[in-house]
Design goal:
Length: about 475
């Protein structure tokens, strides 16, 4: 459920960033034309084309960043890092758009560089001003939600501290159920204690409130039903804590961090159900990741075809047999698919593997050995240069794989998986991934592979995928591919 704060913040940040970009464009023009005198005279239509492409690049870049995080909680250092990422991506998208459309102002390199550089400086400053404005809006704009709390003494301060970090909410008061009458009217953590058990309903009936947070110990909830019915009749939005979920997280979620543990209330068979599971990618993120896969897959296929054609000649001469090796692998949440590679081993490789298991250098469910006799001479070269992976670009286009993900296990490996190993399959497998760019030839413990894969899944971002792709290119050209 998208909160009011997220909706308002999305609009505010978009408008702020848009205005900053317009200002950056104006300053870039002043700098390159008025001060440095490096800008050639262009027609008004050229400027219209450039500004339109820049605005489109801005929109495309903006939607790539998650705006759900409370901006007020971000430090200045985080703002600077965010500005660097934003403007690097903005510059790349803008330059690509200019190149593809063969824009007349494509040769204005100073202007093209000046816009993101100036925007990089102005963006953290603008966000700082926006934070101040948002905090002031709590008491002056009338847009904040007026919130009341019903809780107990031992839970109150933590609940208050959490809600005070949300600039879109203003805590009007708190009812401490076990508080003596003498405490009503005092303050707790900067919030007025407005009621206790005897009169909290009177307070709710009279106070100006939009939302009510209820955090009290409840066994069956029967005693709370009349209160909930009356609050519902007032038109209040009620949030109440489910202690059962707390117990489930405490007992079951040591490995599955509660930070990425999603909860959703729904209905099934006429009753309420609580759906819990590891947090999935948002629809926007799925679309962006798949779009990057399609574009990258198409480019990869075009590059791969001539390389595969050249490699096929020595490969077939050394070892007769199929050029493409096809094997069943396990992908997203246990789905089985066919992975395609250039064949780097002799035809009887799978049969010979059984006799070589004693020489396995990996601790766990993967097989790796130095100077594997099953690999051909050409196979060693195409593995070292990762040429054997090129046919997987076609698997990416088919949707079985992604450009970046986790390594898909074989069926034999998957059958030996323990429960926590399957966690690494909760995202679509990839041609490359965090494990591959983290010294895969030096990692000899399968549990370390699992740890890196889970780390990638838990901290996924589109920018993270882009960084892994660039690191992969470096690893390949540095000769650090698979052995």
């Amino acid at each position: 459920m998208i909160t009011k704060r997220e909706k308002l913040q999305y609009i505010y940040v978009f408008l702020t960033d848009f205005v900053v970009l317009l200002l950056s464009t104006l300053l870039a023009w002043v700098l390159t034309d008025g001060i440095l005198n490096h800008l050639m005279p262009y027609e008004p239509s050229d400027w219209v084309q450039t500004i339109c492409l820049l605005m489109l690049a801005f929109v495309a870049t903006f939607i790539c960043f998650d705006q759900a995080e409370n901006i007020v909680n971000r430090s200045y250092g985080e703002e600077v890092r965010l500005s660097i990422k934003f403007n690097v991506l903005l510059g790349l998208v803008y330059s690509t758009a200019m190149l593809l459309t063969k824009a007349t102002m494509l040769d204005s390199r100073y202007f093209t560089l000046a816009v993101p550089l100036i925007n990089f400086i102005l963006l953290p400053i603008a966000h700082g001003l926006l934070k101040r404005r948002l905090l002031k809006m709590q008491s002056t704009s009338g847009l904040e939600s007026l919130v009341g709390l019903i809780t107990t003494q031992d839970r109150a301060e933590k609940l208050i501290a959490e809600l005070q970090r949300d600039w879109s909410k203003h805590i009007s008061g708190v009812a401490i159920l076990e508080a003596p009458a003498s405490d009503v009217g005092s303050t707790l953590a900067g919030v007025k204690v407005t009621a206790n058990y005897d009169n909290f309903m009177d307070w709710l009936r009279q106070a100006a409130l939009d939302e009510v947070y209820v955090d009290i110990p409840m066994d069956s909830g029967e005693s709370f039903i009349p209160v909930l019915e009356e609050m519902e009749s007032m038109g209040l939005t009620v949030h109440f804590r489910l202690l059962l979920l707390d117990h489930i997280e405490e007992r079951c979620c040591g490995e599955t961090s509660s930070v990425r543990f999603s909860r959703m209330l729904g209905r099934c068979a006429g009753g309420n159900i609580v759906t819990m599971g590891t947090l999935e990618l948002k629809l926007r993120d799925r679309v962006l990741k798949r779009a990057m896969d399609i574009v990258g897959g198409l480019v990869g296929c075009l590059i791969s075809i001539p390389i595969i054609a050249i490699t096929a000649i020595p490969l077939k001469l050394e070892s007769p047999g199929p050029l493409i090796f096809k094997q069943k692998r396990v992908g997203l949440n246990g789905r089985v698919f066919y992975i395609h590679k250039l064949r780097s081993m002799y035809m009887d490789a799978e049969e010979r593997k059984k006799s070589l298991m004693a020489q396995n250098e990996m601790n766990g469910l993967m097989f790796k050995m130095q100077d594997d006799p099953r690999i051909t001479k050409v196979g060693k070269f195409i593995r070292k240069t990762s040429i054997d992976e090129l046919p997987q670009f076609f698997d990416v286009l088919r949707g079985d794989m992604s450009l970046v993900g986790t390594r898909p296990p074989t069926l034999d490996e998957y059958r030996l998986y323990e429960s926590h190993h399957k966690r690494r399959l909760s995202m679509k497998p990839g041609i490359t991934g965090l494990w591959q760019v983290s010294g895969r030839s030096d990692i000899e413990d399968f549990e370390e592979v699992v740890r890196l894969d889970v780390k990638y899944i838990d901290n996924w971002s589109l920018w993270g995928d882009i960084k892994i792709l660039f690191k992969t290119v470096y690893v390949v050209f540095a000769g650090r591919g698979a052995k």
